[in-house]
C-alpha cells in the first residue's frame, strides 16, 4: 500500500473544451509542434491542430503564463532553458538512449533494502524500470509519473510526497513538499538539472531549486545524472555545487576537457556505457 502524503490544488482550466482534444492535450500538442519545428506561426499551428487561431491564441496565453512558450511577432518558440522547463512527456522523449545508459550505470549504486529518492527529472526516470532487479526498496518521490510507474510492483514500497500540484511537471512542489521531505531520510537520491557546468548545477525555477536542495539534505548519498547536452545549456540559479554529489554519472559524449576539469575538482565520475 502506498504511503500517500499530498494536498492537491486543482488548477483551473481556462480554455473551453475542444471537440477532439482536451485543453491540456491541445496545449501539449501545441508545445510539441513548437519543439519539433523550432518556431511556428500561430495560423500554421491552428491548421495543424484543427482549431481556430483564436483558440491557439488562448492556449498561448496559458503557456506563456507557465513560462513554456514565447510569442514574438506572430511566431511561437519554446522558452530557453534559462527560464523554463518542459512537460515530462516532452522531456522524456529527448535523448532516450543517453538517459537509459545513465540510469543503467546509476542503478549499480543501489542496494536491496535502500530507500531511494527521486524527483520528476526525466533523465532519472528510466531507473524506475530497473528497480525490481534490486528490490526490496522504498521509493520516495514527489512525481506522479514515478508513482504511477511503481505502484503495485512487488518488492517496491512507494512513498508519494505531496504539496502544490504543478501541472507542467506532473509533480508536487512548494513549501509543504519541502517540509514533508525534511521528515524523511533516504539512502540515496538520483536527480538531474536544467544545466550543468564544471562547478555546479543550475535551474531557473525557485520551487524546483528548493525541493532539490531538500532532497540532498534528506539523502545519505547524492547522485547527479547528466548527459552531454546539459553542459551546453544555461540557467541562472545555482542548485548545488558538483562537490556536493557523491557520484556524477555522465555519457561518453561529454567533451574530454569537461571531464578532466570535473575530475580536477575532485568529482567522482561514472561513465555510462
From TrEMBL:
Molecular function in Gene Ontology: DNA-binding transcription factor activity
Keywords assigned by UniProt, alphabetized: Transcription, Transcription regulation
Top-level division of the source organism's lineage: Bacteria
Domain HTH deoR-type: 23-78
Residue stretches in coiled coil: none
Entry protein name: HTH deoR-type domain-containing protein
Annotated organism of origin: Propionimicrobium lymphophilum ACS-093-V-SCH5
Lineage per the UniProt record: Bacteria, Bacillati, Actinomycetota, Actinomycetes, Propionibacteriales
